[in-house]
From TrEMBL:
Residues 16-75 form the HTH cro/C1-type domain. It comes from Streptomyces sp. R33. This is Helix-turn-helix domain-containing protein. It comes from the Bacteria. SMART domains: HTH_XRE. CDD domains: HTH_XRE. Pfam families: DUF5753, HTH_31.
Length: 280
């Protein structure tokens, strides 16, 4: 089991133990609580020690049995965080890249306005098959995950049909470094840059480039995707972070808007992409 999931489950167990020992009517033993709930004692032990995952009903019953029903909402939020907020690559890639692409496709389908920031790779929504193939292959090597490269490439390219959906908007920004990073052979990168040039002018796509020479009000850190204003996905080496609390989403929107002040669009973006193309 991945360490991020287990750590969150252990933290939930510690919180359950706190509720048991701080019961308003006096500290409850594990046996006493199990009797109140009609459970075997071992279930209380396993939940408190992070050896079993509680259900939403288990948490509601625990809060009520310890005389603290007001803690139910907090416990449910912690339960949601076990799987939804920190998604380790080891766990996600256990069956390959295709399931990860399927999950992202589902979020795209629910989204009207997608904002993307990438600092070192061409955004997935604009990748050519050959470029995507190179990215997936290298990531599978790094993560030592099953090879389902062609399935993942097909799903990523299929998702790009949304670029031509008049009901959706794609606001994509990339640092100039993403245009020049040789994560694939030079001919593949050349074709990828041609692809970027071809989407400039689409009424559903706003493609901005932050040039190396642009004054920056904030450093171009790791990539993130903002789905409407309900979800942010951030990629790190060990995991994806799925962030849905309003305060954090507001932070990423501020970061997005700050980076946008340094971006160029239209003919100026074409010039920066063209210079990277000629440099190959």
């Amino acid at each position: 089991m991945s360490t991020d999931f287990q750590a969150a489950r252990a933290a939930l167990g510690a919180r359950l133990r706190d509720l048991r020992v701080s019961a308003p009517g006096g500290r409850l033993t594990g046996t006493q609580l199990a009797d109140r709930l009609g459970w075997v004692h071992s279930k209380v032990y396993k939940l408190e020690n992070g050896r079993q995952t509680a259900t939403a009903e288990d948490l509601r019953a625990w809060a009520e049995a310890t005389g603290q029903p007001g803690a139910t909402e907090e416990l449910h939020a912690r339960l949601g965080g076990l799987e939804s907020h920190v998604r380790s690559w080891r766990r996600q890639l256990a069956s390959g890249h295709r399931p990860v692409q399927d999950a992202i496709t589902a979020e795209h389908a629910r989204t009207t306005t997608l904002r993307v920031w990438e600092n070192c790779l061409v955004a997935g929504m604009l990748q050519t098959p050959d470029y995507a193939r190179a990215v997936f292959t290298r990531h599978a090597d790094l993560m030592q995950s099953p090879r389902d490269t062609e399935d993942a490439v097909r799903e990523r390219v299929r998702r790009q049909e949304a670029l031509y959906d008049s009901g959706k908007r794609h606001q994509i920004m990339m640092w100039e470094g993403a245009l020049r990073a040789l994560v694939c052979p030079p001919p593949v990168l050349a074709a990828q840059l041609d692809r970027l040039l071809s989407v400039i002018g689409l009424d559903t796509v706003e493609l901005g480039i932050v040039p190396f020479t642009a004054p920056l009000k904030i450093h171009p850190a790791n990539g993130f995707w903002i789905y409407d204003e309900r979800l942010v996905i951030v990629e790190d080496w060990h995991a994806e972070l799925w962030i849905d609390d309003a305060g954090s989403i507001a932070t990423y929107l501020r970061v997005w808007n700050t980076l946008r002040e340094s971006a160029v669009y239209g003919a100026e973006a074409q010039r920066v992409i063209g210079e990277a193309r000629r440099a190959l």
